């Protein structure tokens, strides 16, 4: 019986490795698929939940060998470094049936760390600053399209200031990106596991999303420590402050959107109308600060009473 189970797990690992390899190679020859590259951990997460870490590591090794042979070793290395640890960690925590948003939080941390490690490694190898490269690329675009922007009454100086600001907050944006990607990977993986009828995994409702109860104290301490860095030589206080601000603005924004979704669910309207309202709240950018403030208030007073539950 155990031999049959091992054989089944080996076959599934080989199948997942084939799918992952095909997808990883496809993005090179079909560039439009690059926007879906962030879904690469999904089959590996599903494998980790169904068959365990050992077979997922085996699938990762097979995947890296196939992609490495058919493409470039460097591309394969960074693909595995960025997505491999995330798949293993998230698969492990889902298998252990940990709290969904705890799993997402840990996955976000791992994703951000592997992303920064990859960027620092690339920067060390080719001897350039990643943030500066991004900034110079955008400035080059602005310079070449200066006539078009001028005809649209868009100030080139203002565009350069925006580029400078984006360069400063790039680390924060990368962490936000990791958080969004982890959210999507988690929900897609759980949806597939439910479809496969593999144990009783529940798809967490976003309206029940809540930040840790100590988030307020933690954010206060972090802002105080950030402020104190202005008195430390060699530390870019303004850049650090802007990145911390972006991170907390986003996490409270998530809680604010979850709160709005929770309140809308109490109203007797069609589901498509609820979804439309949430989409409008997300795309209307001037509401970002207001929704973040709502999320902050909900974190302090637990208006939805989720902690009691």
Describe this structure in words.
- This is YybS family protein.
- 77% of the residues lie in helices and 0% in strands.
- By secondary structure, the chain is mainly α.
- The protein has two domains: 1-204, Orthogonal Bundle (Arp2/3 complex 21 kDa subunit ARPC3); 207-309, no CATH class.
- The mean pLDDT is 84.
CATH C-level class of the largest domain is Mainly Alpha
Number of helices: 13
Roughly how much helix do the residues carry, as a percent range?
over 70%
Count of the separate structural domains = 2
Based on the coordinates given, report the CATH architecture of the largest domain. Answer: Orthogonal Bundle
| Unreliably modeled segments | none
Mean pLDDT score: 84
Distance between the termini: 42 Å
The biggest sheet amounts to: none
CATH topology of the largest domain: Arp2/3 complex 21 kDa subunit ARPC3
